Amino acid sequence: MPVLTAGAGLHETLALLTSQLRPDANHKEDMVFLKDVFSERSLGYLMKIHEKLRQYERQSPTPVLHSASSLAEDVADELQGGPMSTEEKELLHLLISPHLKAVLSVHDIVAQKSFDPVLPPLPDDFEDELDEESVKIVRLVKNKEPLGATIRRDEATGVVIVARIMRGGAADRSGLVHVGDELREVNGVSVIHKRPDEISQLLSQSQGSITLKIIPAIKEEDRLKDSKVYMRAWFDYTPLDDKATPCQEAGLPFKRGDILQVVTQDDPTWWQAKRVGDSNLRAGLIPSKQFQERPNVSGLRRSFRLSRKDRQGSSGEGFEPGDQEFLTYEEVARYQQRSNERPRLVVLIGSLGARINELKQRVIADNPHRYAVAVPHTTRPKKPHEKDGVEYHFVTKQQFDADVLNNKFIEHGEYKENQYGTSIEAVRSVQAKNKMCIVDVQPEVSRRIRNAEYHQEDRLRQKDEDLQEMRQSAIQIDQQYGHLVDRVLIKEDSASACAELRGVLERLERESFWVPLSWVRT
């Protein structure tokens, strides 16, 4: 069997490996596939190139000269100055080919370490019109990204004014364009008599270097500082579907549940925001809370109505702006459970047939020292084998009714003429034992207990999609209470759902989560 030497290269190793592949009855197709892949000539070439590059890397090469392009041009000029042999003609053809010119140009850029873009000189006619006291010429370089600024026409004067500077965009990064600046020209084209949409199209179509002639604002606004305001969106937003947006290209699309960093709320109608975790550094426009909840002739704004149409109909009638049920944004903060704090309360809600109680009991049975349920109260008679405070807290109907009036129950109801309920004190009793309390409640209860009093609560919803009725139940819960839910478990089977729930509970103790700001301040 051939043996590789210590100095064997990658392409030699690849060739040896290919020669050793022997199809057998069990893995014939796999072996044939691997042999075809490893036998590709292009792969062998790549291996050789890789080896050469590694050799050069170990040698720490330095450029022989920093102006290979100039040298190539000088040689080409010299060759064209007299009669040429066949070899000289071939050399000239190579030197003037665009591909070699590009390679030599890149070589010089790397050798000179000159990576900043080079702006072309200003046109001559700009110098004649330049008034240093009133006009500023701004040169920006952008790729295919938007410029990151919106414009408007001043109703009083008719001039075109920079309305917004989007955080992280090309205009913002330059530090040369500010809100209130008057825009006169774009790449030498006057915009005085153009419509704002025509100007926006001119800016979006410009690539590479963009030259702007502007008159600075009398009082330039200070650069915006990063905000510490974070919002959880409770609705879906698509700028392309919103005719009210001042610039659809500058809009920021988001989904219900996304966390948005609002970098400025200076405009009462349109905020600038970024999605947390988004690699795009440029901020985008989102409708402000006040604007999104603003009533019109048919209820709330269309983009919000569409996200709730299954509940109230497409007209949006019956919405009350400011009602917690219809909040558009919720201010949130990062929360990390500390060692000296009581364990979290976990609330489970489920669709019809989800068998939440079974899932809860399985998780607790797997780790009874870590998780527990709150012992419920009941007015039914105690059975002989039952102990007070173990299966239930047995109380009289008068005592139960008094506790209901005093708001001592998280949830309560009647079954076969007996009252049942889960008390706040029962939850606190579990937490006092340093255990995570798990309760399952009706979906409508989750809204009532989602407040600072239960600020260590985490809500999970489970869906069971075996039957149409169950699917409809899950859809209804999602429409009415989905914005209150932190995690969703899709139940394929009891074992997988139980394992997923255990994973969520473990992460609650070691990871940070976004929670309503009021919970942290309380």
Question: Can you give a write-up of this model?
Answer:
Helices cover 35% and strands 20% of the residues. The protein is an alpha+beta fold and 522 residues long. Strands 10-9-8-7-11-21 form a 6-stranded antiparallel β-sheet. The longest helix has 18 residues. About 6% of the residues have low confidence. It comes from Nothobranchius furzeri. Belongs to the MAGUK family. Keywords: SH3 domain.
Main beta-sheet annotation: 6 strands, antiparallel
Number of helices: 18
How many domains would you count in the coordinates? 5
Tell me the Rg in angstroms: 34 Å
Give the DSSP E fraction (strand runs of 2 or more residues): 15-25%
Q: CATH topology of the largest domain, anyone?
A: Rossmann fold
**What is the annotated CATH architecture of the largest domain?**
3-Layer(aba) Sandwich
Strand order of the largest sheet: 10-9-8-7-11-21
What top-tier CATH class of the largest domain fits best? Alpha Beta
Question: How does the helix and strand content classify structurally?
Answer: alpha+beta
Termini separation: 74 Å
CATH H-level homologous superfamily name of the largest domain: P-loop containing nucleotide triphosphate hydrolases
Low-confidence parts: 219-225, 303-324
Q: What's the rounded overall pLDDT mean? A: 75
Q: Helix amount, in percent?
A: 25-40%
Tell me the total number of β-strands.
Answer: 21
Global geometry: flat
Protein name: MAGUK p55 scaffold protein 3
Domain L27: 6-60, 61-118
Region (Disordered): 302-322
Domain PDZ: 137-218
